[in-house]
Amino acid sequence: MTLDRRTLLKAAGAAGALNTVWPLSAGLSPAQAREAAEALGADYDPAPFTLGVASGDPQPGSVVLWTRLAPEPLAAEQRLPEVVAVDWVVAEDQALTRVVARGSAPASATLGHSVHVPVQGLAAGRTYWYAFSALGRTSRVGRTRTAPTGSVARVRFATANCQAFHDGFYAAHRGIAREDVDFVVHLGDYIYEHGPVGGDHVRDHEGPAVLTLADYRRRHALYKGDASLREAHAAHPWFLTWDDHEVANDYSGTGGGAPFLQRRAAAYQAWYENMPHRDGGESALPDPVLHRTRRWGDLLELTVLDLRSYRSAQNLAGGTILGAEQKNWLKGTIDRAPDSWHVWANSIMLSQLRGRPGGSYMFTDQWDGFLAERREILGHVHTSGLEDLVVVTGDWHSAFVDDLRVDFDDTSSPLVGTEFTAHSVTSGGYSADWNAANGPLMGRGNPHLKYFEGNRYGYDVHELTPQRFTTRMRVVADRRDPLSPVTTLTSFHVDRGRTGSYEDPATKGSPAQWRRD
Predict the structure, then answer these.
(1) In a designed cystine with 214, which of 76, 193, 482, 487 is the match (CB 3.0 to 4.6 A)?
(2) pLDDT at 512
(3) What is the CA radius of gyration of the chain?
(4) How far apart are CA 483 and CA 474, in angstroms?
(5) Dihedral (CA of 73, 79, 82, 87) sign
(6) DSSP β-bridge partners for residue 238
(7) Is 24's pLDDT higher than 60?
(8) Between helices 324-335 and 371-384, what is the axis angle to 10°?
């Protein structure tokens, strides 16, 4: 059976939706499914390393290397031996001639033939290249970097979030791959769990809502079918957290009956199998441990939060978004904080957000549904004397800049930091008309809100020096174009030792639906 892009798109147009011809829902074989996926815009590396390579959680002497063997990426099961030996190599040059470490790791069917290699004994603050070999084939070459120690003059990193496959191509990740950054922080919604959406979309999901381990594996493989995402993984080491769509919309990690707990376990395992994650617990399964603190020399302390696994339901008097253990850990991190920039990787908005003056909270799935705990944490930041706090956030599909106050309803309450909420990679936001009408209402209803822009898609690049923190909002011209150019929409700064942000005068004339003068 031969499937060409023109025939598929013609059929899709006649039916009015891509999902009517999308592979697995039509009962195709794995090979035919891959052919159909590629005809509709997916793309894969040569087998068995179809999903590419990645690295993550860089430390001064160590980094985790990842790959997953998937000769048929959209198959429910791979036609591979139970265990495959995967060789790996790390070198000081891209040609892999100056080798500094090598070894072999087992890729087992139990973990989807994934490999997580915690390479040790590397030099601090160095760039390395790496590759894998198995079954007579060699992967693409990836590039990674270890964290430095001691005095650091500059740190640059990118943040990305919310990359619905059906809403556009990953030109933003193509841009990230080309950025001069030390690492990438992904803030969640790496995949989406629902079925096909149909309508006017450049591509669509491969089948119905995902529920089982095989479903989630296939969905991750579909998302890595975008070449730009694989390129961004191969270009830089990543830190990772998740939000809700890696499992199910708006879920609480501590709620649900047996069927949901089985679904969550499947989702967590598939996430681990497909990410360059160094687990923080005794075992990555069934529940990977995401929260951690990492340092980049003396300039940056990065705190990664998990705001899904341990949360209670929303809007409870004693509700928790962190869970007791993670909350105590975060407080201890605040108490022991070094003299540096402090960045929290935070998947959902920390700042208060009312829809209009005196109005209700817009979404209580974010920290607005956990008021007492938010006040407790921000109050602890204030009483501890922690300075130079910047929170980087995803989820909203729009860009916000907020001042952080201990009590958002009291404009005389102490300022304790700044929050930058980034545009999404592709996931659709509100319409331009909605943004134009509601941006000013949100601005007037939230005195701590400095900036709102919802009409664009992209990522943020953050640059830290001993004197200043700068965030550049990098946006794509068209998310429907996989080669879309990237430009800087605007930039904001935070000065060391001074709480609060300000927009760069050179970019202050850029379009926005709200900015506070």
Answers:
(1) 76
(2) 98
(3) 22
(4) 15
(5) negative
(6) 56, 184
(7) no
(8) 20
Compute the distance between CA of residue 185 and CA of residue 404 in angstroms, rounded to an integer: 21
Beta-carbon neighbour count of residue 103 at 10 Å?
A: 12
Q: For the residues 303-314, what does the mean pLDDT come to? A: 97
Tokens of 348: 């959902």
What's the CA gap between 471 and 193, in Å, rounded?
A: 31
Q: Residue 286: is the preceding peptide bond cis (ω within 30°)? A: yes
Please answer whether residues 178 and 413 qualify as being in contact, where contact means their C-beta atoms are separated by less than 8 angstroms: no
The span from the CA of 454 to the CA of 461, in Å, is 18
**Which residue type occupies 509?**
G
CA distance 121 to 188: 30
Angle between helices 227-235 and 171-178 (to 10 degrees): 20
**Maximum Cα–Cα distance across the chain:** 69
**Is residue 69 within 8 Å of residue 107, measured between CB atoms?**
yes
Contact 259/200 with Cβ under 8 angstroms? no
Phi/psi of residue 414, nearest 5 degrees: -60, 140
Q: How confident is the model at residue 12 (pLDDT cuts 50, 70, 90)?
A: very low
The DSSP H or E segment spanning 37 is helix 30-39
Q: Looking at residues 215-242, what average pLDDT do you find?
A: 97
Q: Return d(Cα 375, Cα 82) in angstroms, integer.
A: 50
Contact between 406 and 378 (Cβ < 8 Å): yes
Three-state SS annotation for 218-275: HHHHHHCCCHHHHHHHHHCEEEECCCCCCCCCCCCCCCCCHHHHHHHHHHHHHHHHCC
What is residue 35's predicted lDDT score, i.e. its pLDDT? Answer: 73
Strand extents, DSSP E, 168-236: 183-186
Burial call 136-171: b when 16+ CB within 10 Å, e when fewer = eeebebbbbbbbbeeebeebbbbbbbbbbbbbbbbb
Is 423 in contact with 164 (CB distance < 8 Å)?
no
**Six token digits for residue 419:** 């929050």
Tokens 């996430």 belong to residue: 271
Residues whose CB is less than 8 angstroms from the CB of residue 376 and which lie 6 or more positions away in sequence, other chains included: 327
Among 351, 339, 359, CA closest to 377:
351
- Pull the structure tokens for residue 12: 């899709």
Average pLDDT, the chain: 93
The size of the chain, in residues, is 517
State the Cα–Cα distance between residues 326 and 332, nearest whole angstrom. Answer: 10
55 vs 235: CA distance, rounded Å: 9
The H or E element that residue 403 is part of is strand 399-405
pLDDT at 346 over 70: yes
